[in-house]
Amino acid sequence: MTDALKKYATRIVGLLVIIEAISGYFLWTISPTNEAGEEIFAIFLAIDLVSLAMMSNVYLAYEHNTQLNRAFLLSGCALILVLVYISLAL
Amino acid sequence: MEKIAAWFDSRFGLSYPFLRDAPAYSINPFYWLGALTVVAFIIQGVTGVMMMLYYVPSPTQAYSSTLFIFQNVSYGRFLETVHLYTAYAMILLAFMHMMRGYFVSVYKKPREGMWLIGMIMGFVTLGFGFTGYLLPWTVVSKSATDVGVGMISALPQPFSSFLKFLIVGASGDAGVILRFYDLHVVVLPAVLLLLLFMKMYMLEAHGIAPPPSGLESLPENKKKSVPIFPDVTFYLVELAAFFGAVMLLISAVFPLNLPPEYTPQAAAQFTAQPDWYFLWIYQILKIQVFETAGLPVALSIITLIFLVLVFLPFIDRGPTRKISKRMKFVTLGAIFVGEVIGLSIWGELTPGQIISNEAAALVLGGIALLVTLGSVVFYKVFSRASGIGRKNPVAYHDGKIVADSNPLSRSQSFWTTGSFAVLLGLGTLTIGSSINSVVTLTINGVSLPLVSSLIMSLACLSLAILGIVYLLYRLELNSGSLKRRIKLFEIGWKSE
Question: What is the count of residue pairs from A and B with beta carbons less than 8 Å apart?
């Protein structure tokens, strides 16, 4: 991994941490007593988990000085977007 | 701070990993299907314990307490939904783990014991499904369980009496639900954990099985070891987090709705059907020939299938693990997977219907035939394609080894395999259509549109079969081995 890619990886992890923090905040604000609240809770928890998976992936690439798995990261981003879209639709 | 860390390390041995390093080639999701099954089991445990706080295992309160979880407990419906879907995922992952092990023959020496323990763990997983399904006491779950318990009576003695004593008892519904609950939350988890410990211990002893093609085929960077922490641990976190996210997404999009409560009146108007993972077995039992008196025969056949799977390491004793050299076992495995999927879909489409012997023979035979043809083509195409790049690709002609002047290129392999996939798909569709026409003809009598539909289906099926035979022949033209094989059946043919 080049220095430029290392900077890139650090920025990705920073963004993922922000996403985790926002979705974590939403988890605490959702009403647990109605059905839509349960579904939105599941969606935001899923966003947290996808971010965690992506952070693990970036961490391993960073540690081993290997290339970032772009297909995996793009899939993760796409999944997060789908989840956000579903949460808005619910 | 360092002193505190050193104290903990010296007392608890934190810096001594109790799991051995993993080979780099195992950093691949297919190697961790078993680990994902364990992740599903952990999610099951956590959500199950939360539901245990409210659930009451008695025929009068099981449904109302489940409904209470749905309606009054915070995130109760979410817990129930995640518990159900993760249970399904656990069964599916266990099946995929088993079939992956089968195809790459991980059961061979010295891992026979691991295979045996894994198979028992698979049965325990199915036991979880069977016992847990009854607990909400809905008309769907109780009727399905009654079907399952009824099947036990058809088993030969003393298995029938023993299983009845173990899971049914003699105290009616109250006894049944309590036993199922005890098995589900105490006995089966304890047994599964014990087996998991044994399997992990054996995995540490033998290590992760190398790929079937052997270590020498791997690039250098795949041959080295990676430490269990942080590499393997973070990789597992990645897989588990993705798996959990998918489970949550499915739970959010398809939340569970509780079916009506079980009452004898409600059950009388309901067609009993087991859950999807037992559907293939149920579909076999619905075949006309196995009805009533034939039930023990059907159960014996199913038992035999399971016994073959359990004792596979002692049946497939060949020395090689290479998939390219195990065509017979790979084809049998593919047929098994094809039949299980086919029977399950068919079972879902025909709830409660008795299957005629002809339809069963056509579907089961059709699937077996198509999968076998697919397997033959797969082996033929890829063995030819693998000749690319060799200086003198080898082929046989009239029993002699000759250079293959026309090995398949990659694009040819792709198009040939694609054509086969299309033809096999067409074949499967036309078999289904033919069965539908035959069944409708039998029920509704002969009519012109139905006969035309049957003729059209059979014509398409014939075309698909002809196309497959033609492609097979094209593949064999250059090497001539098909001609040689045909000659084998000719009178007067002499071996060279």
Answer: 72
pLDDT surpassing 80 at residue B405: no
Q: Which residue of chain A is at minimal alpha-carbon distance from B226?
A: A64
The shortest CB-CB distance from B245 to any of A32, A33, A49 is to A49
What sections of B25-111 are H helices per DSSP?
33-52, 62-72, 76-103
What lies within 8 Å, CB to CB, of B36 at 6+ separation is: B29, B93, B239, B240, B243
User: B252-289 burial by CB neighbour count: b if 16+ within 10 A, else e?
Assistant: beebbebeebbeeebeeebebbbbebbbbbbbbbbbee
Chain B positions touching A60 (Cβ under 8 A) are 230-231, 234-235, 238
Q: Which of B85, B90, B98, B87 is nearest to B30 (CA)?
A: B98
Residues found in chain B: 496
What is B17-321's CATH number? 1.20.810.10
Among chain B residues, CA nearest to A63: B231
Please, what is the average pLDDT of chain B?
A: 84
Structure tokens at A30: 């959702």
**For the segment B215-247, what is each residue's pLDDT rounded down to a tens digit?**
888 888 888 888 888 889 899 999 999 999 999
A60 touches chain B (CB under 8 A): yes
The answer to whether residue A56 neighbours chain B at the CB level (below 8 Å) is yes
Any CB–CB contact under 8 A between A77 and chain B? Answer: no
pLDDT profile of chain A (90 residues), mean per 10:
79 90 87 78 94 92 84 90 87
Domain ranges of chain A: 3-89
Query: Taking the model in full, what pTM does it have?
Result: 0.81
pLDDT at B444: 72
- Between CA B235 and CA B238 the distance in angstroms is 5
The pair of structure tokens assigned to B290 is: 């196995």
Q: What is the pLDDT of residues B76-85, one digit of tens each?
A: 999 999 999 9
Are B184 and B131 in contact, with CB atoms under 8 Å apart?
yes
What are the domain boundaries of chain B?
Answer: 17-321, 337-382+408-487
